Amino acid sequence: MTTTVAVVGATGRMGRLACALIEASTEFELAAHIGSTGELSEMLGADVVLDVTVPAVSQSVVEFAVAHGINALVGTSGWTAERIAVIDRLVTGKLDVGVVFIPNFSLGSVLATSFAAQAARYFDSIEIVEAHHAGKVDSPSGTAVRTAELMGRARSELGPVSAPHVDQRARGQQVSSIPIHSLRLNGVVARQDVHFGGTGEVLTITHETLSPSSYEVGILLGLRAAATARGITVGLDALLGLGDAG
Prior knowledge:
Elements: E1 3-8, H1 13-24, E2 28-34, E3 48-51, H2 55-67, E4 71-74, H3 81-91, E5 98-101, H4 107-119, E6 125-133, H5 142-154, E7 173-175, E8 178-185, E9 190-198, E10 201-209, H6 216-228, E11 231-234, H7 236-239
């Protein structure tokens, strides 16, 4: 039995990739291909909604899906813990609805984030530099936000990191007390460097996406999980059995 999927944001980079994967799969069937001029009602009847839109649109997509009892897989960036909490409140009490949030579908990226959360316990000086293609509309990236949140959670008993002069605009945006610096450049797909400064040493955990094909395994994992999800699930790490890195 196949799972029918409505893709919202189908004309974007991730949307096109997801549609191609779904059409080539024997597990899934493309029920709706919804672009910027489409209507959310086109997702009605699908088993799962895959949201790969933009931050300004994503919340309305997820809220519509939840209101109509459709499970959702959210690949749109920009979902902070606070924004996810809003959806959690909507889902609470709905025993037959689930939403899976995946900040990054790359297996290597989620492993790098997990490693960074482990390292955060041992360094007080931490900063993130993330780079994406020039067309990415949000910053910091969802991956950087997720990484900072998990590192902050890992350091909950240690307190905030040491981040001097954060009142200066060039020092980046703080998430969980960790400065994040965003680059938007032609020629880049995606890269994240988490820098840890210690006494006499620097540790850097780097992940670089060389091709969108790196997202394929994660998209399929996410769709499988979303088909039977209940409640809120956050992060590919949860689907890979890594547990809560924080």
